[in-house]
């Protein structure tokens, strides 16, 4: 159920994978199909979403947001590519100013000030509440993590509305205190799945070199990563990850040998510097996309 007194009308601009992950979660938990609308430019994708989910899908963004005779949009989720988001937001700016729905952006690297500028008609504050949401791709399999930042126009009720949307794609989600915190989230969880894919890829390849079949090596590595993550999430808050690692690392044992070699090869430092590179790139993307 919605956190408000009546179910929310949620409109998605962009009908890609992340949109589908959210809307399928909403519908599975009983959200009315009549209160979900999607705007998607590709005809084949439009038909897929209509046939699969039984929802209204439009080719025109403004029609989706303000469909005549339909409930007014409470939440508009921007799920388009960063390169086109400026054009998209300018195109629906008038209806956003008139109806002032909660705008939730899952567009990476685009700052709230730029959304506000694109929405404003004359440079004055438009008063449209905006949330930046940083999800990650495991949302597609129900194992997502996300961070969120709200601008000053977002009410407590609208924060709850955001969480209502986010809980359908993320098992762990948190509000951050500053917009730069969204970039921090990106460096940890937004881009984080690729870090673990790299580790699993390396473990799989070495397993093959040691004599295992590729399928066995891959599944062993993946299940080990999943199990280790579960142990971290289930551990008491007083027990940090270093303690968990030490518990499975017997002095002079096999795990100790592996960990010591990885430390010698700079694995922890490499991960940290990679995360910093991600964080720096987030900041530079914000500058680039803000000029659109």
- Can you give the helix content as a percent range? 40-55%
Largest sheet strand order: 3-2-1-4-5-6-7-8
CATH architecture of the largest domain: 3-Layer(aba) Sandwich
End-to-end separation in angstroms reads 38 Å
Q: Tell me the number of helical segments per DSSP (H or I, 4 or more residues long).
A: 12
Describe the structure.
The protein is an alpha/beta fold. It folds into 2 domains: 10-184, NAD(P)-binding Rossmann-like Domain (Rossmann fold); 192-284, ProC C-terminal domain-like (ProC C-terminal domain-like fold), CATH 1.10.3730. 54% of the residues lie in helices and 13% in strands. The chain is built from 12 helices and 8 strands. Strands 3-2-1-4-5-6-7-8 form an 8-stranded mixed β-sheet, sandwiched between helices. Helix 7 (180-190) packs across helix 12 (267-289). The mean pLDDT is 93.
Secondary structure blueprint with pairings:
Layout: E1 10-13, H1 17-28, E2 36-39, H2 43-53, E3 56-58, H3 61-65, E4 75-78, H4 82-99, E5 102-105, H5 112-119, E6 130-134, E7 144-150, H6 156-166, E8 170-175, H7 180-190, H8 192-210, H9 214-234, H10 241-247, H11 254-264, H12 267-289
Parallel strand pairs: 1-2, 1-4, 2-3, 4-5, 5-6, 7-8
Antiparallel strand pairs: 6-7
Helix pairs in contact: 4-5, 7-12, 8-9
């Amino acid at each position: 159920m919605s956190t408000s007194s009546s179910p929310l009308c949620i409109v998605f601009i962009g009908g890609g994978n992340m949109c589908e992950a959210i809307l399928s979660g909403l519908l599975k938990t009983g959200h009315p199909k009549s209160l979900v609308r999607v705007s998607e430019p590709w005809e084949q994708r439009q038909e897929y979403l209509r046939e699969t989910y039984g929802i209204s899908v439009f080719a025109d963004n403004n029609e989706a947001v303000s469909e005549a005779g339909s409930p007014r949009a409470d939440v508009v989720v921007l799920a388009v590519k960063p390169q086109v988001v400026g054009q998209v937001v300018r195109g629906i700016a008038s209806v956003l100013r008139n109806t002032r729905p909660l705008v939730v952006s899952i567009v990476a690297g685009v700052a709230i000030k730029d959304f506000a500028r694109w929405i404003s008609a004359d440079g004055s504050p438009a008063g449209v509440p905006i949330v930046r949401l940083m999800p990650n791709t495991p949302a597609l399999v129900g194992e997502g993590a996300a961070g969120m930042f709200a601008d000053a126009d977002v009410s407590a009720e609208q924060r709850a509305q955001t969480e209502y949307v986010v809980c359908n794609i993320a098992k762990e989600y948190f509000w951050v205190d500053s917009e730069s915190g969204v970039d921090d989230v990106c460096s940890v969880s937004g881009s984080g799945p690729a870090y673990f894919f790299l580790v699993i890829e390396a473990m799989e390849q070495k397993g093959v070199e040691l004599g295992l079949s590729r399928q066995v090596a891959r599944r062993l590595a993946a299940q080990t990563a999943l199990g280790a993550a579960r142990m971290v999430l289930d551990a008491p808050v007083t027990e940090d990850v270093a303690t968990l690692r030490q518990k499975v690392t017997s002095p002079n044992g096999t795990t100790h040998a592996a960990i010591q070699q990885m430390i010698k090869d700079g694995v922890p430092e490499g991960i940290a510097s990679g995360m910093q590179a991600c964080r720096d790139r987030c900041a530079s993307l914000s500058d680039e996309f803000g000029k659109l």
